[in-house]
């Protein structure tokens, strides 16, 4: 990882962690009933377990590229991270991927219990929409409505959740490259695409600029999944922070399995090159996003 990317990730983690600490306080918000202590503890365990905070970083830096740097962006970024963390809690459940380790420590259902993990995931999901609707996210009601609707679609049946369903159905079943790409564009790519697109929406950029950042996000989402496949097949479990070799064990069709390692690495490099070409018109203002794009290809966990 480059020094720039390392610094960016560290800054994002610190800022997003601070916002998550606030919104996951045991203290009830206006209009809420009491927050059950065990549920809050499980939510905090799931959401404050470290991690790269890549999706929030992409949102924050996309907005920064276009001139928006205030704390309202952090609230929107925390909403996105709540969605991501909820998905990890549910994906780890015995009924799904049945994982016992996440980010180097027991998964939420192991640390607590399955029922609490389900409720923690549900609560993180719904908290995300509480956050994205808050006035500090944007003084434009239309912007907040657009962000909320697009987040729902990125996370829902036609996005991440739909992709997870397709992934479950792919076990021990042959799939074409187009089918796998569609699956991964939903399960993994949808939230990464949203991260970049929403940064432009937060900055109230022109439609053309929104589409440029959207395309950048699509490419980074594809690159991220290829890198993830490589980590699962070739990575060190202790470095990755979770079990590796799971896709092969479950008989899941992957792009890596179809292409082979050499071709996958070549395509990954080409994707990053394409992503960087989209940022070229922004010149040095895009340095941070450039660093994040390169990090996606070079990450070790």
UniProtKB/TrEMBL annotation:
Biological-process GO terms, alphabetical: terpenoid biosynthetic process
Keywords, alphabetical: Isoprene biosynthesis, Magnesium, Metal-binding, Transferase
Gene Ontology MF annotations: metal ion binding; prenyltransferase activity
Pfam families associated with the record: polyprenyl_synt
Protein name: Probable farnesyl diphosphate synthase
PANTHER family in the record: FARNESYL DIPHOSPHATE SYNTHASE
GO cellular component: cytoplasm
Cofactor(s) in the UniProt record: Mg(2+)
Biological source species: Pseudovibrio exalbescens
UniProt record similarity statement: Belongs to the FPP/GGPP synthase family.
PROSITE patterns hit by this protein: POLYPRENYL_SYNTHASE_1 (PS00723), POLYPRENYL_SYNTHASE_2 (PS00444)
InterPro entries referenced in this protein's UniProt entry, alphabetically: Isoprenoid_synthase_dom_sf (IPR008949), Polyprenyl_synt (IPR000092), Polyprenyl_synt_CS (IPR033749), Prenyl_diphosphate_synthase (IPR053378)
């Amino acid at each position: 990882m480059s020094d720039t990317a390392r610094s960016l990730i560290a800054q994002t983690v610190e800022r997003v962690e601070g916002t998550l600490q606030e919104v996951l306080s045991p203290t009830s918000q206006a209009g809420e009933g009491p927050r059950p202590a065990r549920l809050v503890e499980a939510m905090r365990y799931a959401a404050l377990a470290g991690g790269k905070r890549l999706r929030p970083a992409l949102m924050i830096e996309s907005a920064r590229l276009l001139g928006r740097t205030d704390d309202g962006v952090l609230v929107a970024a925390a909403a996105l991270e709540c969605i991501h963390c909820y998905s990890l809690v549910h994906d780890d459940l015995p009924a799904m991927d049945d994982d016992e380790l996440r980010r180097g420590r027991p998964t939420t259902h192991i640390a607590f219990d399955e029922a609490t993990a389900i409720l923690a995931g549900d609560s993180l999901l719904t908290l995300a929409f509480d956050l994205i609707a808050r006035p500090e996210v944007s003084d434009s009601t239309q912007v907040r409505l657009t962000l909320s609707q697009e987040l729902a679609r990125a996370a829902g049946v036609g996005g991440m959740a739909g992709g997870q369903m397709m992934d479950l159905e792919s076990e021990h079943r042959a799939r074409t490259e187009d089918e796998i790409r569609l699956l991964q564009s939903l399960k993994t790519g949808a939230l990464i695409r949203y991260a970049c697109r929403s940064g432009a929406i937060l900055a109230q950029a022109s439609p053309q600029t929104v589409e440029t950042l959207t395309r950048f996000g699509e490419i980074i989402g594809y690159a991220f999944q290829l890198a993830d496949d490589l980590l699962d097949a070739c990575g060190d479990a202790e470095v990755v922070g979770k079990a590796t070799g799971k896709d092969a064990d479950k008989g899941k069709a992957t792009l890596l399995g179809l292409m082979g390692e050499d071709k996958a690495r070549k395509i990954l490099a080409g994707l990053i090159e394409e992503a960087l070409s989209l940022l070229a018109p922004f010149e040095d203002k895009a340095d941070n996003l450039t660093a994040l794009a390169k990090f996606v290809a070079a990450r070790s966990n």
